[in-house]
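Encode chain A's predicted structure.
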Amino acid sequence: MRAIDIRVARRDEQKALEALQWRASLANENDREALLAHPEVVELPLQQLEAGLVFVAEAEGTTLGFAALLRRDDGDIELDGLFVEPDRWKQGVGRALVEHCETFARAEGAECLQVIGGFEAVPFYRRVGFEDVGPYQTQFGPALRLRLKL
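Encoded structure for chain A:
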């Protein structure tokens, strides 16, 4: 694969990124039934885009994935969403997005980058340096809160 470039998402990409989120989410069999029952959860709020908190990974002009961040009240940054085109999984796209988010969070003065990961995503987050914080209950069931110390 060619070099992965990461840039701030544009407002006019909202629907295309939500469609990517759908493809990536439905490719995970553990989440498919809950997502189909609650399609309203697949949303990329315009305020995240307008705040410059969404980053797109691309190669040769093709969108490969994106990451969405939230600022937390405690000064940390939350990785609110990380989605990669299913045919690009295990090609370094997710890792590149996490590294970009880590750099962004550090520049913002955060001490940690935090994420709530479903159990299928936890091994990936551990591989890229996140540590377990503890269990977390989502609307779809148990998950794990993890953090990456900056």
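The beta strands are 5-8, 54-59, 62-71, 77-84, 112-117, 131-138, 141-149.
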